[in-house]
């Protein structure tokens, strides 16, 4: 049945090729001290506390100022005052006389406009409240950051006098902020008092003053508690957005709240790494079980806060050869992992949209321009593949590969036989964990490329798509079979440096590269960007010549397109277009290459776009599926797809 020059080795279980030892780099970085400035280089923030002074206009005035490390002048401030209330029997009831009461007032809370939206106002308010609690409500001598319970508590006689604090403020809102400022203070624990709201008009400007108050209660127990950690003790911190694929990541309270809560986060420099806290002072902590919660201030004695809240950032470099000066180690899209003190890794669960810690690392991308940390599905193998693609796939390289493979002299085989060969290749070649589990003794079960191909064909069948679309869905990944037919060249290169047969995003070579090209941060590695011939929208091509007349990156689907044409199948032109162009997302998604496309391409675009949609959908659904057996694949072929293959003359020996 088979007559080819090179007989492929028997199919084995799908396994991901390890292009480079990124795990080794992770272990090598284990002893390095990466901190806040490595993760998000640039400026940091700091808080400064001042009391009284020549600028003070109120008795007992205090200020908390927020500064950038690289600029003069405060970017935000809160001004408040406090004093112990002197009461007489004429002014107070008997119940009030039995209380020790202090009065406080927030006079100013201001954040410069360009720094709003990160709850820095909430941070300053929380810091002021913490300071007032420390000053009046809490016996700080019985609150210990080291939490040494072996030391005796001070007696009641030795403890300082404690007070309740009535802290008042006026929420001033204009028309554009109606209700927003009140909602802001309500979230911080304030309430509207019964005093009358004042409405003030000054020519064309009108606003209202809403009296509000928060009551701070004096501590009623002598039990030792850990103090809320003030950011004024931190050398540096930054506001940061922690996001996943679905936006902000939620977290549960250590108090057992079922609802996932969303917060504005700060990232703080710690002695042994970094810590995440909310702007209201709650720490993100990782437990040994893998759960991740925020630590309530009232429930902070059951764990080692400093240890459980500390994460060590470890960098996964894009570099292969560390002497290569072209590679930028600190790319804004390079990968990091965040390791807890338990040896687990912080992640954002894609199903629950909540934080958790796992034994297997998840990857994060730090963006200093918008101060964000994004949990990404990207992996070191994928970044490495695209880096090599940018480095190797030039106009000259594509021409040489076409000369090498388009004579179709590798051998002869049927397409069904080739489906058997790709059973040994993974459907998800860039999955970081398809080779080993945490013990390194067994493989994580992921479906093979053959399974993905059959499931995509079945999905096309269920949607009622034409039979030739079903056939293309089944055959479009068969370019990877070249690794079996050409083991000494393509196979060895795929195992060590670069696997061109894998289906990844494509682009046109020989003209200007679109800005939206996938992993465009690696474009500087491609020598074509320095060649004037390829610097224009048309490059070496005629205007509106059509995509049939241009060169694309050399890939498995590009090879399959030419193989189907060379072997003169009866598939319609739309089928061939789907095979070749579904990876050209810059064209069918972002509408690039308008200078070289023509009307025929526009006619093909809906077919190509829908095929890519079907493929993406199937890949998402197939991730957790069970690999199809040889018997199951044979049944699907014999009962349905063999007849379609015969109809379009795809059931015979093909030249490869």
Short description:
The chain is an alpha+beta fold and 656 residues long. Helix content is 27%, strand content 21%. It starts with 21 loop residues before the first helix and ends with a strand.
Main attributes?
656 residues, alpha+beta, 7-stranded mixed β-barrel, 18 helices, 25 strands
The profile of the biggest β sheet is: 8 strands, mixed
Question: What is the radius of gyration?
Answer: 32 Å
- The overall average pLDDT, rounded, is 84
Overall spatial form: elongated
- The count of DSSP E runs of length 2 or more, i.e. the number of strands, is 25
Structural class: alpha+beta
- Output the number of helix runs: 18
Which blocks of ≥5 consecutive residues have pLDDT under 50? 1-7, 9-20, 142-153, 321-330, 435-443
How much of the sequence lies in strands comes to: 15-25%
The helicity comes to 25-40%
Gap from first CA to last CA:
15 Å
Q: What's the layout of helices and strands?
A:
Elements: H1 22-28, H2 36-39, E1 45-51, E2 61-68, E3 74-84, H3 94-97, E4 101-111, H4 120-137, E5 164-174, H5 180-187, E6 191-192, E7 198-202, E8 205-216, E9 237-244, E10 247-248, E11 252-253, E12 265-270, E13 273-278, E14 283-286, E15 292-295, H6 305-308, E16 310-316, E17 335-340, E18 345-348, E19 355-358, E20 363-367, E21 372-376, H7 380-392, H8 395-405, E22 412-413, H9 415-421, H10 449-462, H11 467-475, H12 482-485, H13 487-496, E23 508-509, E24 551-552, H14 556-566, H15 573-581, H16 585-588, H17 599-622, H18 630-647, E25 654-655
Parallel strand pairs: 4-5, 9-21, 11-15
Antiparallel strand pairs: 1-2, 2-3, 3-4, 5-8, 6-8, 7-8, 9-10, 9-12, 12-13, 13-16, 14-15, 16-17, 17-20, 18-19, 20-21, 22-25, 23-24
Helix pairs in contact: 10-11, 10-17, 14-15, 15-17
